[in-house]
Design goal:
Length: about 300
């Protein structure tokens, strides 16, 4: 296996100092569920790494809290902790759902939200949800702190805006307005241990007479970076939610995916699959699930 120096940080300050000294050749180790697999597989993206800074013991980075309507997750919060959090289950239930479906119990107990973000896999389960929540990443370095929207932090498959010497310390989002409903559906290859082949995160809020006031649609593993598909959202905004409109929005989202990514070997499978997932997720979030099921029968 690839050889590197290893430092176990005992404080955030110590971690930032080690990362700063290591510069481009250093990286953080959180739960290790991506990084150690990458080292074992001799992943070319890790070939330059000469220093690994273990931040796994920094318990001050493992928290879930809410202050003045802003929900904050420490970078070391595990998928299991998020899935089980009563705050998250109420404030952003689709985030709890997404985290509950990551890998296996062992992976959920070790894997962290910060690691999921920084690994930036197109199939990462928390990313579409965090983009739908318009979440921000909080980054710390010896030089100070900066905040970047998740939608800009992820720059491409396995590529982020993390700078040398920086650590993600927190992910935060405003609690969705009262009346917001959410849904996350993932289509995995296998039920357990599945890395998402396709997923969809939906946040929907209806007003008087069931008119859609807020709609955010973010597919996972469908685009080079997780992003809202506004052309599909526009079909629903300002309209009363119906099965037909949800179907149209699903089809539009699939068309947008093809427009952005072009035709690939997987396109004939992905187009109907993402269209159907999107329709189902919109209807589930809108409380029309039964109607949709009956209409397909
Ligand atoms: C069998 C298996 C199944 C899996 N299934 C899923 C799945 O269903 N869905 C899914 O989304 N993922 C899945 N994963 C991937 C992985 O578990 C997640 O991406 C996890 O959240 C990574 O977190 P970690 O703490 O283990 O990250 P690590 O492996 O420790 O780190 C990952 C990357 O992020 C960097 N990093 C970590 N924390 C920070 C930080 N705070 N600041 C700066 N950089 C940081 C590291 O340097 C590294 O580059 C699976 C992995 C395995 C092995």
């Amino acid at each position: 296996m690839h050889k590197f120096d290893y430092v176990k940080a005992r404080s955030l300050e110590e971690a930032l100092r080690a990362l700063s000294q290591g510069g481009e050749k250093a990286c953080a180790l959180a739960g290790g569920t991506d990084l150690l697999v990458g080292f074992r597989a001799e992943d070319a993206r890790l070939r330059h790494i000469e220093l690994v800074v273990d931040i796994g013991d920094l318990t001050e980075l493992a928290y879930i809290r809410e202050e003045n309507g802003c929900v904050a997750l420490g970078a070391l919060t595990t998928h299991a902790a998020i899935a089980e959090s009563s705050l998250i289950r109420v404030a952003a239930p689709f985030l709890a759902t997404a985290c509950s479906q990551v890998g296996s119990p062992q992976i959920r107990n070790r894997g962290t939200v910060g690691g999921n973000l920084c690994n930036a896999s197109p199939a990462a389960d928390t990313l579409p949800v965090l983009v739908a929540l318009e979440a921000e990443v909080v980054l710390r370095s010896l030089g100070g702190e900066r905040r970047v929207p998740v939608s800009r932090f992820v720059e491409g498959p396995h590529r982020t805006g993390l700078r040398p010497g920086e650590l993600v310390t927190e992910v935060r989002f405003n609690r969705p307005l009262p009346g917001s409903r959410t849904c996350f559906i993932k289509l995995g290859r296998r039920k357990a241990m599945s890395i998402a082949r396709l997923s969809i995160a939906v946040l929907l809020r209806t007003g008087d007479g069931g008119v859609v006031e807020e709609i955010r649609l973010v597919p996972g593993a469908a685009l080079p970076v997780p992003a809202r598909v506004t052309a599909a959202e526009e079909i629903l905004r300002g309209q009363g939610l119906t099965v037909e409109l949800a179907r149209e929005a699903g089809e539009k989202l699939a068309q947008e995916m093809v427009r952005i990514t072009g035709q690939r070997w997987s396109t004939p499978y992905k187009v109907p699959a993402i269209a159907a997932l999107t329709r189902r997720a919109i209807l589930t979030a809108g409380g029309l699930e039964d109607v949709a099921t009956r209409s397909q029968a």
